[in-house]
Design goal:
366 residues, 8 strands, alpha+beta, 10 helices, six-stranded antiparallel beta sheet
Length: 366
């Protein structure tokens, strides 16, 4: 397939090549998910919202002999994901800007593969996508199918026969039980560090699944769709532009805490303002981002007989797992049965009560 025909297939993309220091750069225009007009998050299929990357012999790419701190230590999936999250707000509360020619304050290149190299703790300034996928680097091993994906795995377009427009993203968890989309962290043109729903690798495209060879955690990796124990899952990070069921549950919980916002599944200015007010009231960092510390204060324990918006939040989450509950705010027998079934499936204490461990697993185990 020619490079020209490949650009035709990848729609909604405007590329402007810029020669700079022998490395081609690109400016890419892609619609924001926040402007999609949908109350549910749009899962993005494979598209080239990134540019050409430095080649293996570039001074901007880690060379042989300096690849990895992973060679001597196992990295947990949670540690890897937490490293990835730091770039969402590292730029004075905003994402690290995208660049193939610059390194961030931590020494890693500010493109997709530099970002992944940072999350994996590889040598600075980071491998490129071909290096991440190359078995000779000793960093990853290829999986036989996307159904095997777990938290911390990678989806990589490392093809070199269609030009050098390659990409890599970090898988966190499935977006639904059908495994038709997933949540991922990526460093992409125009937007910088992003957390959103994707479909790369699902269906026919050039993305293949890989697992970091030193990534620990076993079946508790938190994304493979099997049974997951609570300590191995992480709270999602929500911020301006986020969409979907997690946002809706957060909005319902904010209402339960006395900060009424529309439960429209879209993290807009009103939701951010409510989050900031809530954070200030709980002596949290008032950054408008719902991360682990904010979730821990935001959730409410709900059980049989409970009612209100916190119950609606739990019902919203249970319905992501296809329990088919009426989101009516009443914790009755059907809701308790769904909670018990969920707890059994995820190896939690089976008490029918939605407490901190069950909340975290509801929000973090897909």
């Amino acid at each position: 397939m020619s490079l020209r025909s490949r650009f035709t297939r990848r729609t909604r993309i405007a590329l402007i090549g810029i020669a700079a220091g022998g490395v081609a750069a690109a400016i890419v225009v892609v619609p924001s998910l926040a402007d999609s007009g949908s109350s549910e998050p749009a899962a993005v299929a494979a598209q080239a919202d990134y540019g050409p990357e430095p080649e293996a012999d570039s001074k901007l790419v880690t060379q042989a002999g300096g690849v990895s701190t992973m060679a001597t230590a196992t990295l947990s999936p949670d540690t890897m994901i937490n490293r990835a999250r730091t770039w969402l707000t590292a730029n004075n509360g905003g994402p690290v800007p995208y660049s193939m020619e610059r390194v961030w304050k931590d020494g890693y290149r500010q493109d997709c593969s530099g970002f992944v190299s940072m999350a994996l703790g590889l040598g600075k300034p980071g491998l490129n996508t071909v290096g991440l996928a190359d078995s000779k680097s000793g960093v990853t091993t290829r999986l036989s199918s996307v159904s095997q994906l777990k938290k911390g795995d990678l989806l990589i377009d490392y093809r070199t026969d269609d030009g050098d427009f390659r990409h890599v993203v970090i898988f966190e968890k499935w977006a639904n039980t059908a495994h038709s989309a997933y949540y991922a962290y990526e460093q992409r043109g125009t937007y910088g560090t992003t957390y959103r729903q994707l479909k790369y690798g699902i269906g026919s495209d050039n993305y293949d699944p890989f697992r970091p060879v030193k990534l620990g955690g076993g079946t508790g990796g938190g994304g493979g769709g099997g049974q997951v124990s609570s300590p191995s899952v992480s709270w999602p990070v929500l911020k301006s532009g986020s969409q979907g069921a997690d946002v809706k549950s957060a909005q319902q919980l904010l209402t339960a805490q006395g900060y009424s916002v529309a439960a429209d599944s879209s993290f807009g200015p009103n939701t951010r303002a409510a989050v900031v007010k809530f954070q200030k009231s709980r002596s949290l960092a008032a950054d408008g981002v719902i991360g682990p510390n904010t979730w821990a204060k935001l959730i409410k324990v709900v059980k049989s007989g409970s009612s209100g918006s916190a119950v609606k939040a739990a019902q919203t989450q249970l319905n992501v797992y296809n329990y088919g509950l009426a989101v009516d705010g009443g914790f009755g027998t059907k809701t308790k049965s769904a909670v018990v079934a969920f707890q059994k499936n995820h190896k939690l204490e089976v008490d029918g009560v939605v407490g901190p461990n069950t909340w975290r697993t509801l929000l973090g185990s897909r």
